[in-house]
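Render this sequence as a predicted structure.
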Amino acid sequence: MIDRTKQQTAYLSGGCFWGMEELVRLIPGVLETEVGYTGGDTPDARYEQVKTGRTGHAESLKIVFNPQLLSYRHLLFEFFRMHNPTTHDRQGNDIGTQYRSAIFYLNDEQKHTAEEVIKTVDASGDWKARVVTEVVPFKEFFRAEEYHQKYLVKNPHGYTCHYIRRLDLGETK
């Protein structure tokens, strides 16, 4: 039985949140996912505002996970396998600040782990350019509209530019 009192939360942004959520929710140890907006300054951000790229928010994923089954470090390596962390404000055809790669840390331990993982990923040479993922403090998360939640479960033929790349990224080194 999973001890729900030991769950942790992560906030990640790697492009369109539909594709990210679909892949993350399948990682063993992930308990819950929720898509939304974080990293901006507009109160109670909504999709119609965020899609303009003027609110400062990124399409993001709230991930609740069991650290007994999934470490934050391993979650970050999976994050770097499912999106291109070397493109600034872009994933596939999606372009704009709302599609940037970012890790929104909740505490110093998450910040330190994120910085270490980025160094490891860069040193691996698996990505041919340097990682541009932002590591920034978490401010606030605004849950996206219901039609965005589990979008690719509801619309299995919907658009996504995300997939798992078979990269080592230095995780096993």
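Summary. Residues 4-154 form a domain with the Peptide Methionine Sulfoxide Reductase; Chain A fold (CATH 3.30.1060.10). The first strand starts at residue 8 and ends at 14.
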